[in-house]
From TrEMBL:
Protein's UniProt keywords contain DNA-binding: no
Bilayer-crossing regions: 12-29, 41-65, 86-113, 143-163, 175-195, 215-241, 253-277, 302-329, 341-360, 380-400, 420-442
Family stated for the protein in its record: Belongs to the sodium:neurotransmitter symporter (SNF) (TC 2.A.22) family.
Primary localization: membrane
Keywords of this entry: Membrane, Symport, Transmembrane, Transmembrane helix, Transport
Protein name: Transporter
Subcellular location as annotated: Membrane
Keyword Transmembrane helix part of the UniProt annotation: yes
């Protein structure tokens, strides 16, 4: 039955799809405002450190588990560790992805609404206050719920086409275009008067500005940005052929992710300082800065529309992977219609996402959970509690439970790297990754 499963048609298709899963809101929307609120350059360096020493080994681990089992997340752990409770790790991934989608798709809806408004010429206009515009979009129940519904509809339609004809085809065409337009935006941002102050904020580290909370957020961002911890990449790599090197593919995804985060910082922070805005703006930072930057250039509305369209795609490729782990959990190896399960899953996410959608200035904005609104509380739960928890147990599973010969076989397949790389990866997964996660967790609980 495993041989009848879909596979990625090529290595580049898998890498671009995996990069698409990783490069989305985490790198383009969340990274700039979290970095802005936590010291800029110092946060960026911590993010790179965590991404290389922890995120990359974790990404390799999920790839190994997925291709080694040739099954989606829940079944993968059951197959690799039969008659044990490790399948619950896959279930954690399904639940975690569901919770993540409840606020992720809200932001995706914002991007979709902004794209539509820009295409019809309603964003860049004389006298428009972009901060107020963002507030109007996010506080309007009808607009936010419409955006959420339309965004999920796109996800559902693409997933009904499957891996090769849906996710891979979309990723292969659109990811390169995202890089091109991002570079155009960076060039324009860097040529604004006063831009160098923003460059210094982003690339000249001041470690005195880093707090213990900032370290926690940097680790959470490295997990969030690479889509590891919820076994999304276990599901993606279960469709991977034996002719693809896992370390090479994972490294390519990490490099692209760090590069996009660099581009995001160079696009946003020079513009923030040049235009007299605050880097601590928060979730609305991107929606305020982008229109302001594009309003400074000829054909700005056109360029903004194109960039928002590509940003929308980057957001979609990430949510594809999140919804895919849910859909595949209920269809892989089962006599169930992928189309029906995709629709049921999408509708369930829409219903569960309504509270987060209505909490950003809407009728539910007064509801506070541990000092945060519903949207922010869900974000914190997913990014700083559940994602590190999932990564910790994946590290324990692959080192202490999964068959060592299968792990090494999957690591070395089509691998042109030095044999020492396997030893380095094993050392990081055995000692560095779990210890760092435990320290961060103790800090989160106020015990460290």
């Amino acid at each position: 039955m495993a041989d009848k499963r879909e596979q990625w048609s090529s290595k580049i298709g898998f890498i671009l799809s995996s990069a698409g899963a990783a490069i989305g809101l985490g790198a383009i929307w969340k990274f700039p405002y979290v970095a802005g609120m936590n010291g800029g350059a110092a946060f960026f360096l911590l993010f790179i450190l965590f991404t290389v020493l922890i995120g990359l080994p974790m990404l390799i681990s999920e790839f190994i588990i997925g291709r080694g089992a040739k099954r989606e997340a829940v079944t993968a752990y059951r197959r690799l560790a039969p008659k044990s409770g490790w399948n619950k790790l896959g279930m954690l991934g399904v639940v975690g992805c569901f919770l993540l989608l409840t606020f992720y798709c809200v932001v995706g809806g914002w991007v979709l609404i902004y794209t539509i408004l820009s295409v019809i010429g309603k964003v860049i206009d004389t006298g428009v206050n972009y901060g107020q515009l963002f507030g109007q979009v996010t506080s309007s129940p009808s607009i936010t719920l419409l955006g959420l519904a339309l965004y999920l509809l796109i996800n559902i339609i693409v997933l009904t086409f499957g891996i090769k004809n849906g996710i891979e085809k979309a990723s292969t065409y659109m990811m390169p275009l995202l890089f091109i337009f991002f570079i155009v935006l960076v060039i324009r941002s860097l040529t604004l008067d006063g831009a160098m102050e923003g460059v210094r904020f982003f690339l000249n580290p001041d470690f005195s500005s880093i707090t213990s909370d900032g370290i926690l957020y940097a680790l959470g961002q490295s997990f969030f940005a690479l889509a590891v911890g919820f076994s999304c990449m276990v599901t993606y790599s279960s469709y991977l052929g034996k002719d693809v090197s896992i370390p090479s593919s994972a490294s390519s995804v990490v490099v692209m992710n760090i590069f996009v985060s660099l581009l995001a910082g160079l696009a946003i922070f020079p513009a923030v300082f040049a235009l007299g805005l605050e880097p601590t703006e928060g979730p609305g930072l991107l929606f305020v800065v982008l229109p302001t930057v594009f309003s400074q250039i000829p054909f700005g509305e056109l360029f903004l529309s194109l960039f928002l369209l590509l940003f929308l795609f980057a957001t979609l490729t990430s949510s594809f992977s999140l919804l895919e782990i849910i859909v595949s959990a209920f269809t892989d190896g089962r006599n169930r219609s992928r189309k029906s399960v995709s629709w049921i899953s999408g509708i369930a996410v829409f219903i569960a996402g309504i509270p987060a959608a209505l909490s950003m200035g809407g009728p539910l904005s007064d509801i506070v959970i541990f000092g945060k609104n519903i949207f922010d509380a869900t974000d914190f739960l997913v990014s700083n509690i559940l994602l590190p928890l999932g990564n910790f147990f994946i590290a324990i599973f692959i080192i202490y439970k999964m068959d060592r010969s299968l792990v090494e076989q999957q690591f070395r397949l089509a691998n042109t790297y030095s044999p020492a790389l396997y030893s380095i990866w094993t050392f990081l997964m055995k000692w560095i990754v779990p210890i760092v996660i435990i320290i961060v967790y103790l800090h989160t609980l106020g015990l460290f």
